[in-house]
Amino acid sequence: MPPQKVLLNPEKRVLFLTKDPEIIRQQLHEGLNLRMEDLEVEDLLDDINTDVMTPAWVCFDHLPAEIAKNAYAGLMDANGERVFGECELMDGGFEAIVSGYRKGTGSSRETAAQCERWSGIRYVFAASFAPIHERNNLNLGQLMGNHEMLVRLQAGEELPLSEFTANYDKVTRMIIENGGLFNFSRKIQSGEIELPPNATGKRPMTMAEKMMAAKMLNPGVEGRFVAAGDAILAQVDAGFSHEFTSAQVHLFLQQEYGEDYTVANPEKLAVFEDHLLYADGVTRFVPFVDKIQTMRRLQREFQAHTGVRDYQAKNGVSPGICHQVAREEFIDPSDFVQATDSHTCMGGGSNALAYGVGATEYAALAQSGFTFARVPESIRFELVGELNEACCAKDVILYILNTFAKREDTLNRSMEFGGPGIVSLSVDERATLCNMATECSARTGICEGDSALAEWLAERRPGSSAEQIATSFVFPDEGAEYAGGVHQIDLPAMVPMVAEPGDPTYGKNISELAETSIDIAYGGSCTAGKVEDLARLGKRKQISDQDDQYDKTSRQQNLLAVGEMILAEIMHNHVIGKHGSQANEL
């Protein structure tokens, strides 16, 4: 349980993650101690990515104590040298860590929060936090605060726990006060804690609000109505984990509920093998092969123990990228989906509410069948017109990143996509918009449904007609409140864009770039791994998902062959020119 009064331990230290790596090294190696009052927020690192905190190879350890040994292993200086050596955060005697804006952007990996907690960090201070990372910290029982609070603490002031919980809803406060999600969930199930009915009365709602209201297990006296900021208990329709996270989910459930634990709705859950499928053939991963095999083995154990759906590789062939297969096979309109992949929000292209969570949160919802959610604010994008032939949905989302996400208009909000222009985008293109809500540091993205989506889903849902599926579509109410505003996106005005190295927030119009040689061409990323993307890249006829002559495995092999031809064509040209319409798909 957290202390009711927070006072910095004079025997412990505060680590400031500064933009100057040498100042970090001085704190790690030379005993330099800094004070927040002597620094400006501009001195601190912004947009610290979870991949920097725990790069992929660090995540091959599923035990948090082992992960912590390589905390911040991805933070490099200008010479490509690690700023943090092995165990340096753990051995530094730090109890607090400080950074700038948007701490924890990127993937939903909970290992980023774990590497700090198991290194002795108890207090995390930043100008702002990316939403999934913030949630992961809360679930682990970490206390988060702002820079002003740190100034007071370093001056010797004692702060009440209520200052760390003041900006949160009642449920989140209770999670913090009980030391994390597992303790809180256990008390809910035992009846020690009882959530009051939601207080919000009848009101017009956004798409995200309507979807959460429909799944709410603690409705108010006026019915199922919610508003941004409401804390609710909600039923989860579906979820999935993959080989990077299933081992931890299995471990945490064993630790919390015993070796004979069960999950509530195994038919609604799934495991995927997609992240590490080709790791054995990557030279730099050779030292980690044994750890990778352990993670695969533990995922198989988890699947066999629980009976969840099995999308693991068979004979070296994976069914596909988890969030892509999920939208094709089991995410439906109005569903509430949570999974351990940051791009779970891709399901929003199917008019569903879907977003990524960490291993702790997923383990808790898998065991109980419900989750604790805070209703997000929303921002709406009205699409008008049609894209010109040189552009695609990736250009639209890069424009939104560079315009709205950069100034944090999308931060922790649900991004709604609608308007008359939405019908001009294919179902796959809409999925691209929602997929990259994560890069916008948004909670999720949701597209309005139409006949094209209904027909696309009907082709993949035997026994369901397009008409039946359309009855599940969720649209915003007239008069719904958008804290992030309503913004018109003029599709004909979009231009081809690319994301500059390091962060897609800083996209550039291709016409602004000098000709740039291509060293590596890659098709099939988590955003651009759809059949339509491959067909567009090669300007080839789209391969039908319903072609009877291919079973799933042979269809994938055929796609690989097409992909090889496409990449050969791209590399033959070898240059991104000013009119390289699909350069951003690489």
Describe the 3D structure.
The chain has 586 residues and is α/β, with parallel strands linked by helices. The protein has four domains: 5-167, Aconitase, domain 4 (Alpha-Beta Barrel), CATH 3.20.19; 236-374, 2-Layer Sandwich (Aconitase, domain 3); 376-507, Aconitase, domain 3, CATH 3.30.499; 514-586, no CATH class. The protein has 20 helices and 21 strands. The strands form eight sheets. Strands 2-3-4-5 form a four-stranded parallel beta sheet. Strands 16-15-14-17 form a four-stranded parallel beta sheet, with helices on one face. A three-stranded parallel beta sheet has the order 8-9-10, with helices on one face. α19 packs parallel to α20.
What's the short story on this structure?
With 586 residues, the chain is α/β, with parallel strands linked by helices.
Identify the notable features of this structure and list them briefly.
586 residues; alpha/beta; Aconitase, domain 3; 4 domains; four-stranded parallel sheet; 20 helices; 32% helix; disordered C terminus
